[in-house]
Amino acid sequence: MNPSDYIRYVAGMDAEELKKEQKELEKKMELVKTVLSMKLSDENIVESAEKTIAQSVITPNDIKYGLLRFPTNSSISQALNKGSIITIEYKGLSFECSVPKLEKYPNQKGRINGLKKVYDQFKEFAENRTVIAELDEERYTIKILEVK
What we know:
The protein has helices at residues 3-11, 15-40, 60-65, 75-79, 116-121, and strands at residues 46-47, 52-57, 68-69, 85-90, 93-98, 111-112, 130-136, 141-147. The protein has 148 residues and is α+β, with helices and mostly antiparallel strands. The chain folds into 2 domains: 3-38, no CATH class; 44-147, At1g16640 B3 domain, CATH 2.40.330.10. It has a 6-stranded mixed sheet. It has a two-stranded antiparallel ribbon with strand order 3-6. Strand 4 (85-90) and strand 5 (93-98) form a beta hairpin.
């Protein structure tokens, strides 16, 4: 819809309908901001009130050792509990992985172990590919949204 048609469309709405339209547009704008921030940011770390999204570039060592590593300063890294078990979801499947204690290597915050089974099963996980993931803190689950 072009701007002129949209103005005519909203001009015919009452106050309640306009409030509803405004809320819907605000939700859409939040999504646009999230995607734009991901495309513009080097680390592609984006937070909204409901979701924490970050990305990780797969290295040869990640494939070899079954690791998924997010930037240390990302919100996902900050939310990971040392020594815990976390669920990774991809394509409708769930995988139990672990967050190491890292007492000897605190600068490796954001690392998740145990993804070898994921990498072996799904060939899209390859060197230099980018993993975009979303953290659900309530369920303590990371959902892999895309591998590109």
